[in-house]
Amino acid sequence: MTLARGYCYWPECQTPTMRMVNGAPVLNVDIAHIRAASPSGPRFDSALSKPQRDEFSNLILLCTVHHKTVDGKGWERYPVELLERWKKEREAGSLDQLAGLSDLTEEKLSLMLAQAQSQLLDRVGPALDAFAETAPDLAVLLRALTDELADPRVHGFGISEDVAMLLNDSAWRLSGLEDNAMLLAQAANKLGNLGYDARLLANATSNLSGLADMARILDGAARRVQQAAEDMGPY
């Protein structure tokens, strides 16, 4: 469940691995075999023994829909190499983080959470610094929010399932924040003269406010000239 990072292994699938039903966690995905568990299944490898086919290296987590897609009609489009790539990409960098969990204690868990949170804030910090140059008030607000969230004395380490899902979804969608911060800063810088430009537009609008009256005057004058020409007749 930890290595799955909360979702089905199908790239970009947002189906969560766990759901709360009547206050209890329930598995929300299937444990799928890369190489089939039985000879009649897709991608079966006769060179593997039954224990080898059930080893962790041959397993991925898929939601019901994607499990049926990978193992159903047209399964040939999902070869072993593709599924192993999904597994490698999803679990990349996570195996080392699980080292030592066999002797996990509450104190150790708190330390690991604090370290993970610190690493995230270390990445967000430079982005806020760049943003502060063009939007200082907003940057101060965001920094105050991140500081509060980082303080376990305020929130502790226990959060509800709904909050966890919201945070996970937000992290997924904001995963490019560090790269996009500079783009936001540049956009804010280009819009820095908006107030000055707005005044120019207001002045221009004011100068043109009499345009409709002037048009009516010109139209009336043109009609009088035309009438005078008709009264005079041919020259």
Structure summarized in a few sentences:
The chain has helices at residues 50-53, 64-71, 80-91, 106-132, 136-150, 152-155, 161-173, 177-190, 194-207, 211-232, and strands at residues 18-21, 24-27, 30-33, 59-62. It has 235 residues and is mainly alpha-helical. The chain starts with 17 loop residues before the first strand and ends with a helix.
Helix content: 55-70%
| H and E string | EEEHEHHHHHHHHH
Task: State the total count of DSSP E strands.
Answer: 4
Instruction: Output the structural class.
Output: mainly alpha
The fraction of residues in strands falls at 5-15%
The biggest beta sheet is recorded as: 2 strands, antiparallel
* Continuous helix count: 10
Computed CA radius of gyration, to the nearest angstrom? 33 Å
Query: Numbering strands along the chain, what is their spatial order in the largest sheet?
Result: 1-2
Uncertain regions spanning at least 5 consecutive residues? none
- For the terminal residues, how far apart are their CA atoms? 99 Å
Average pLDDT figure: 75
Gross morphology is: elongated
Structure commentary:
The N and C termini lie far apart (99 Å). It is built from ten helices and four strands. The radius of gyration is 33 Å and the shape is elongated. The mean pLDDT is 75. It is mainly alpha-helical and 235 residues long. A hairpin with a 2-residue loop joins strand 1 and strand 2.
